């Protein structure tokens, strides 16, 4: 990138794809391409087998015994919308309460904000501390008999905070017996062992493209009894069992929620990504990222001008580091790193409520994955040194600007 | 990054015409939805000309420097010529190549001031 070897540290946005994933999709397109679930011919049977095989792989990967609880969607955002449109609209009404945290990604924030506006429900927003950890006292206090839905991130896309989702789910079920728990696992499943069945939540969402898979394939897991009771989200082909002129009945799970021809190649690619990660071992993936994060935190911490957000304890954070360099805007940091071949994210990270809460307008973010190395962290640190140099942070007084006022009378 | 030249950094660190204007004739806000950066321009207009201009805002070096340089460039100009300023003119002012992803930053102030003519008429 820009004449330099690529150092890709924007993995929380999307991951790169291994050859095995590309080949699995290519193999499908070239040799087995057909529509699924309806053809009698051999090719259709092959395509269907590959799609359903991918579903089984994904279920095993995240510790779900019943693969029919795995619904393929486009991405985590669509999975959350599915829950809101199908379960939420029917079950959340005037005066009911939705509890979520201030650190949610927009996809797990705006959806509930809009549902609350539409149905007259109350949105209760629980604060986090400066490390991104949920204020437990406030969380408990927000839970009442009126709470219908509680949602929180598993790993924060900005601060990297790892939530104890088992504990939080347990608290919800004790204190708000009528509430369902929705966990946003988009930043967790790619990076650490996750066993959904053991969490105690009711819905869990994640996406394929952040875990070596292709874009356009995501997963909604739902507890079977909920999925069975929920009406379809989209109507059309594939999701019906019988259609007559006056009425229709719905297909079984999970196909009830998979209207239209699904993203077959995407699911197969995700299946291959899961194979790849399984071969590496998710414990090893987590360990590798923790080592890199710990090293990067240590090296970054040596640069006076760098402000790091979130926990300094790599046990408590995923492989995500949000930071700023003195008064330099995150976009400028990202541009200078870009010129060195280093890709990071900058901006509000689709988490404006959290940024407002932290009192910052933007932040730079480096996020790691399996293929990153310590040498790349060193290049990243050298890039930050360059930012300090370009902006002459050591020799310039930047306090002037905030006090500049124009006389205009 | 040749864009981060002395002049740009100087205009970012110590922008010209920076600050609120009380009793402004016209206030125009502009937000960059990509990053949430925002700029607010204040104008006093006399006989169809920009008599006074200032701005406030938060943003990256490119957006603040371009707002600073633009505010100086339009001082004393006729309102009617403002809408004819082009993106190319702005790039000329900040004098450097801007990566495609950063054009929005460079043009934030321009987007704001281009609305001046419509706002004066209304």
- The coarse silhouette of chain B is globular
Low-confidence stretches of chain A: 402-409
Specify the number of helices of chain A. Answer: 14
Q: Would you tell me which CATH topology of chain B applies? A: Sufe protein. Chain: A
CATH superfamily of the largest domain in chain A: Type I PLP-dependent aspartate aminotransferase-like (Major domain)
Helix content of chain B: 40-55%
- Radius of gyration computed on alpha carbons of chain A: 23 Å
Provide the number of structural domains of chain B.
1
> Which protein chains are joined by the largest interface, and how many residues does each one contribute?
A-B, 28 and 33 residues
The level-1 CATH class of chain B: Alpha Beta
CATH C-level category of the largest domain in chain A: Alpha Beta
Strand content of chain A: 15-25%
Which features does this protein show?
heterodimer; A: 409 residues; alpha/beta; Aspartate Aminotransferase, domain 2; Aspartate Aminotransferase, domain 1; 2 domains; four-stranded antiparallel β-sheet; 40% helix; disordered C terminus; B: 122 residues; alpha+beta; Sufe protein. Chain: A; three-stranded antiparallel β-sheet; 7 helices
Topology of helices and strands:
The complex is a heterodimer of chains A (409) and B (122).
Chain A: E1 7-8, H1 19-32, H2 42-61, E2 70-73, H3 76-91, E3 97-101, H4 110-119, E4 122-126, H5 136-142, E5 147-153, H6 165-175, E6 180-184, H7 196-199, E7 203-207, E8 218-222, H8 224-229, E9 240-243, E10 248-250, H9 264-280, H10 282-301, E11 306-309, E12 320-325, H11 330-339, E13 342-343, E14 345-347, H12 352-358, E15 363-367, H13 374-390, H14 400-403
Parallel strand pairs in A: 1-13, 3-4, 3-5, 5-6, 6-7
Antiparallel strand pairs in A: 2-8, 7-8, 9-10, 11-12, 12-15, 14-15
Chain B: H1 6-13, E1 26-31, E2 38-46, E3 49-58, H2 61-74, H3 79-82, H4 87-94, H5 103-106, H6 108-113, H7 116-121
Antiparallel strand pairs in B: 1-2, 2-3
Helix pairs in contact in B: 1-2, 2-4
